[in-house]
Amino acid sequence: MSYPFEGDWTLIPELSHCDEGAPPSSGHYRISVEDKELTLLIDWEDADGTPHHVEFTGMADGAIREAGEVGMKASFHIKDNCELISHAYNSGIEVSYAHRRASRDGTILNVLQFHNRPDGTRSMRLQTYRRSQP
What is the DSSP string of the chain? Predict the structure, then answer.
């Protein structure tokens, strides 16, 4: 691992907040980087126990590229060695922004996400993770 945000992370639900609804009751985040190619795997359960899984890849060079569903694009940027920032676009409009920041010692990961709605409003999620034990 060359970046503090790389690795396996376990959600700390009591340190996670959503401005709409309840935060997930559990979650696991895996981030890996090889050269500038990123792989992110995210699993979580909603407060009601519904499981979810998201998996995506990208290049950490700031360029906007095709991603996911038709019409979706994304960009990724590594900042200050401890931060991974992404933007997602649908039909040229930014629909989400995520800022992942690991503590310098690599033990805690904060993920701040904003989702922009078509009506101009946005929602925010802050999730805090602890590095998973091997």
Answer: --STT-EEEEE-GGG-EESSSPPPSEEEEEEEEETTEEEEEEEEE-TT--EEEEEEEEETTS--EE-SSTTEEEEEEEETTTEEEEEEEETTEEEEEEEEEE-TTSSEEEEEEEEE-TTS-EEEEEEEEEEPP-
